[in-house]
Amino acid sequence: MTPDSRRLLPSDAPVTMIDPQGEARGDVPDDATLLHSLGLLTTARRLNDQAYALVRQGRLAVYPSSHGQEACQVAAAQVLDAGDWLFPTYRDTIAASVKGVDPVEALSLLKGDWHCGYDPYEHHVAPHTTPLATQLPHAVGVAHAARLRGEPTVVMAMCGDGGTSEGDFHEALNFAAVFQAPVVFFIQNNEYAISVPLARQTHAPSLAHKGIGYGIPGERVDGNDMAALLTVLGDAVARARAGEGPQLVEAHTYRMQAHTNADDATRYRDDAEVRPWVERDPITRLRAYLTGRGVLTPAVETEFTAEAERAATHLRDGLNQDITPDPDDLFAYVFATPTPQLREQAALVADELSREVAPS
Amino acid sequence: MTVTHDKLSMAQALNQALRDAMAEDPAVVMFGEDVGPLGGVFRITDGLTAEFGENRCFDTPLAESGIVGMAVGMAMNGMRPVVEMQFDAFAYPAFEQIVSHVAKMHNRTRGRVRLPMVIRVPYAGGIGGVEHHCDSSEAYYAHTPGLQVVAPATPADAYALLRAAIEAPDPVVFLEPKKLYWSKEEIEFPVRAPGIGTAVIRRAGTDATLIAYGPSVPVALEAAEVAAQEGRELQVVDLRSIVPFDDETVCAAVRATGRAVVVTESAGFAGVAAEIAARVTERCFSSLAAPVRRVTGFDIPYPPPKLEHFQLPGVDRVLDAVDDLQWEQ
């Protein structure tokens, strides 16, 4: 193997900077950055758990929670500039919200009001995509268009471990490499695709090893270590922005809860498997480190908790609002200008509504 | 404005449309398989890389889903991509991208994200192509809400409709009848033609209406010519676009004659011809002297070259259908 190809391979083990006990090694990001991250993580956890509760209350159809994966969610958005793009999957509501999207709008899809509830151009966040990996070629296109115009945009393209088995994952990485598009492919390996474990997705030594097949440098990182994530993803973004082409980062994390509230994880995994991951929780770990550094004071903690509560209240209030979607919208956006046939069909629905007897 | 005339094949007209669109708008980019220095297997992109550079017309890896998916992203980010699927049946790997994203992005985002992109598909048969090179795939696209589906039948229309497709705010599946690539016509530039969504009457006639698009239009015109020699005047409607569908022109034409035959090359069952027959029947029933007839390909996989003439609707089959339109009453 040549030195040049060896540089495409990931580290022998996932990069870790702060261990589960809060002990640090290496060039850890500065305290202010990590403290900011902890605030975002606190809110992220609160939002995940609030959204989960809102499903039980019937306000959301389901919620694919990123509980336990919040460090990946926060880092993915925290390393980006405002002009950079984020391409989230359905589990990446938190990443979208850190990038600026109102979580109430982000959850419109699961509330059932409309598919994409936010303006993708406002914060450069693409619509949540549910067909796996299909958003990755779009990310390449956005990046390639930006590169052709000489803009410094970087695109963060997210997917899960299951998504790496899809053809579009392969095609997107291959296209990005051939065109040297500034895309960071960020795989959150949370060990499960609904019920199917990683061993059924790949026989590769790691998902980060897939990069070398495309000529893309791959790296793996402890997905519950905020400091390592900021460093590895930050470096990947910097390299992509500097014209070094696409980057692949695999974060090792764990889906602490079931796929969604509609799933029953006890049918395919033991609680004993879940327990050790509680000890590796990304928030506990960062809190221990920053407490040791003496920068996480009770006052700051109180402020973080208050901010998280404000965000949860906003989410609750937003999702508790009963919006009656306008049936005209069914026909208004199929094309830029509705066809005569769609106008006829809209008129049919309007006529049905006009003939409905008003409740006495 | 200077008016010029040029006798062009449909392939040359398409090439000219791409060249003019790219010259006018730097956001227009063309990419796909072999569309760069080679100029495409049908030479539709001939000379574009040389003229506009490889950032404007370029070859991609051989992967249709990636091609269409990348076009989605580029369209999201300010470009007007035109992509070529090398052959009709080679577009199927891109089907998920087309159905789940190209067609739905505008609706999903309440019109905030528009995808002004064109998917060019050399399509249909009649050129002696081996399997997977001759599919009539229009029904798949036409059945998918959110896609405009266009099929030109003449070189002038190929030029006008491709320019319109590139300028359209919505995604367009642009079906290029392969067997007509080499058909020639004197074209007047600038081309004056109605836009997407408008059908035209290619031949006037009072006895019955033939409805066709793309590769079937010349068949319908030839049938009308033969019928005229036999004393029957057939009107020919060229749909030009399948979506949006021009109910107004089609229904006015059928009401005027009271008889209609729909001619398509694609398999008949659950196809575009079935939709047209149903629409015409629903809207024009009281004007009809006979049931609307369909002349279509059979419900079989496209045959090998030595048998394809059985599959293609020809003049005789069209005239037989016309004969069946209850003239005796």
UniProtKB/TrEMBL annotation, chain A:
Pfam family, one: E1_dh
An annotated Gene Ontology molecular function: magnesium ion binding
Listed SUPFAM superfamilies: Thiamin diphosphate-binding fold (THDP-binding)
Keyword Endoplasmic reticulum: no
Catalytic activity, EC: 1.2.4.4
Region (Disordered): 1-26
Keywords: Oxidoreductase, Pyruvate, Thiamine pyrophosphate
Cofactors: thiamine diphosphate
Source organism superkingdom: Bacteria
Record GO biological process: branched-chain amino acid catabolic process
UniProt-listed InterPro entries: Alpha-ketoacid_DH_E1_comp (IPR050771), DH_E1 (IPR001017), THDP-binding (IPR029061)
Function: The branched-chain alpha-keto dehydrogenase complex catalyzes the overall conversion of alpha-keto acids to acyl-CoA and CO(2). It contains multiple copies of three enzymatic components: branched-chain alpha-keto acid decarboxylase (E1), lipoamide acyltransferase (E2) and lipoamide dehydrogenase (E3).
The protein's name in its UniProt record: 2-oxoisovalerate dehydrogenase subunit alpha
Lineage: Bacteria, Bacillati, Actinomycetota, Actinomycetes, Micromonosporales
UniProtKB/TrEMBL annotation, chain B:
Xref: SMART domains: Transket_pyr
Pfam families: Transket_pyr, Transketolase_C
Keywords of the record: Oxidoreductase, Pyruvate, Thiamine pyrophosphate
Any one Gene Ontology molecular-function term assigned to this protein's record: magnesium ion binding
Cofactor: thiamine diphosphate
Source taxon at top rank: Bacteria
Identification of the protein by name: Pyruvate dehydrogenase E1 component, beta subunit
Organism: Actinoplanes cyaneus
